[in-house]
Design brief:
- The protein is of the alpha+beta class.
- The protein is 29% helix and 25% strand.
- The chain is built from 3 helices and 5 strands; from the N terminus they run βαβααβββ.
- Strands 2-1-5-3-4 form a 5-stranded mixed beta sheet.
- α1 packs antiparallel against α3.
- The radius of gyration is 12 Å and the shape is globular.
Length: 87
Amino acid sequence: MTPDGTVRYWAAAKEAAGTAEEPYRATTLAGALEQVRSRHDGRPALARVLGYCSFLVDGRPVGGRDHASVRLAPGGTIEVLPPFAGG
């Protein structure tokens, strides 16, 4: 069975997606992000924002890992975090 979970958008990603969160059904982070891009193909700003965001999967930073290698667990959460200003 393919895991399902929630994608949560923050700041500019939330604005670009037009929603604070939405479901995914994928086994990897790359698969979930492909679903996001397909679902929002009429929102090119979201595709741009995703290109410079950081991601947390179940509270753990993804960092520079290949998104195809990041496995998703059932009921998990992907946090989409644009760079934040301030200190």
